[in-house]
Design goal:
alpha+beta, 11 helices, six-stranded mixed beta sheet, globular, six-stranded antiparallel beta sheet, Alpha-1-antitrypsin, domain 1, Antithrombin, Chain I, domain 2, 2 domains
């Protein structure tokens, strides 16, 4: 976005202006078995010589993400005015670790994440394939005077202590389901530990087009660190035509009325139930969409109901995304532009949701990763960002699992989002939620 067009509330570069910066995820997936080509590393030091599994059914994969998505969204800190998170990124990073878990540790992780590790790994593999194909048709047959094709990527990396004994089955699973292997680093020596931290963070920055920086903070690693498993997600897409900008009132979460930059346009989807009303903004190529959800009463009521119905993919968030798949309604939409970031440790949330043993030195069982020493999860960290402007949307998220040694009607409907609302960026075919959260005060930007 040129300086003359940049909104004071959206200080970042335009969503569309960043188009040339990221290598196409589809090419990277094909060439490197799912690893982002050139994303901070030349290639894993240890990798099973196995092909990546065939991709499965997108809708089945999307449904596999819904239980944990609904639970995690309902469990994050509601004191935040604005929030953006990616349960999908957390689910995939934890699934990588969970394939090496056994006994009660694995059972708790499966219960919390919403499925068997095998099913979740298959879903992760399929969604990586689905996202790698986003915008493919428009790249193969470009049209003049059209926006840049959408891009999306979902990639994984594992960094383990050099010389660490790793079970062959775990390496097989990383290659088969995540297109990944293991990079060797040294967590024992302080200087080389810091080098490892920089390598991991550089990989994440490259994978997210520099949107996620310093995922692993200083002093997060120690001489007890043995493995860091990372998932990184990035998406960028333009609206088919720019939205109209303006200003309008917004009543914040604490009841204050403020003037904000607004975006207006027409959509062709509608969903309504006793909890909320919603529409979705489709992007050029229709591979990605943004659901915008207005609570009937308030945000907590919607979040609680979605969490309570998490096990039923035909209810709650799943029902909303299914309902928005049916086109035909004409909706006049007004929504604030927003540009927000979020970062938090997920360990307390995961423990609250039932995944406690994985963090306990006497209870964690990750013998499927190594039998050389006992491992536990010391921390799970996530960062996420999203920008919505008149040109399109861009979002990214990254999750690190750090493991230590144990010690159209004539009268169109209207949706004017002038009070706290929810958003869900999702892949259209699978209806898999990618990045989601809420806006309580759009004037607060990162």
């Amino acid at each position: 976005m040129s300086p003359s067009l940049r909104s004071p509330g959206i200080p970042r570069r335009s969503v569309v202006a960043a188009g040339a910066a990221l290598p196409l995820a589809g090419g990277a997936l094909t060439a490197c078995g799912g690893q982002p080509g050139g994303f901070g590393e030349a290639g894993p030091d240890r990798r099973a010589e196995l092909p990546r599994a065939d991709f499965g059914d997108p809708e089945t994969a999307g449904a596999a993400t819904l239980p944990f998505t609904s639970r995690m969204l309902g469990a994050i800190d509601r004191a935040e005015n604005n929030a953006v998170c990616s349960p999908l990124s957390a689910q995939i990073a934890l699934t990588m670790a969970g394939l090496g878990a056994a006994g009660d540790t694995r059972a708790q992780m499966e219960s919390t994440l919403g499925g068997s590790m095998d099913d979740l790994a298959e879903a992760a593999n399929t969604l990586a394939g689905v996202l790698s194909a986003v915008g493919e048709e428009q790249r193969e047959d470009p049209e003049e005077d059209q926006p840049d094709p959408a891009v999306a990527s979902l990639v994984n990396g594992v960094w383990a202590q050099e010389g660490m004994s790793i079970q062959e089955q775990f390496l097989d699973d990383l290659a088969t389901w995540f297109g990944s292997g293991v990079y060797e680093v040294d967590y024992l020596d302080p200087d080389r530990r810091e080098e490892a931290r920089r390598r991991i963070n550089a990989w994440v920055e490259d994978a997210t087009d520099d949107l996620i920086q310093e995922l692993i903070p200083a002093d997060a690693l120690s001489e007890d660190s043995r493995m860091v498993l990372v998932n990184a997600l990035h998406l960028r897409a333009s609206w088919p035509s720019p939205l109209t900008t303006g200003t309008g009132p917004f009543t914040t979460a604490d009841g204050q009325e403020t003037e904000v930059e607004t975006l207006s346009g027409e959509t062709s989807t509608w969903y309504e139930d006793e909890l909320c009303r919603a529409t979705s903004l489709g992007t050029y190529g229709k591979d990605l969409s943004l659901a915008l959800v207005q609570p009937v009463s308030d945000l907590p009521t919607v979040l609680d109901a979605w969490a309570e119905s998490a096990e039923d993919p035909s209810a709650g968030l799943g029902a909303l995304l299914d309902g928005l798949a049916d086109d035909g309604e004409s909706v006049d939409l007004t929504v604030p532009a927003f540009d927000i970031a979020w970062a938090a440790p997920l360990s307390p949330l995961l423990t609250e949701l039932g995944m406690a043993d994985a963090f306990q030195p006497d209870l964690a069982d990750f013998s499927g990763i190594t039998t050389e020493e006992e491992l536990l999860i010391s921390e799970v960290i996530q960062k996420a960002v999203i920008t919505i402007d008149e040109e399109g949307m861009e979002a990214a998220a990254a999750t690190a699992v750090m493991m230590d040694a144990a010690s159209a009607p004539a009268d169109p409907k209207q949706l004017v989002l002038d009070a706290p609302f929810l958003f869900v960026a999702y892949e259209t075919a699978s209806r898999a939620p990618l990045v989601l959260g809420w806006i309580g005060d759009p004037s607060e930007t990162r």
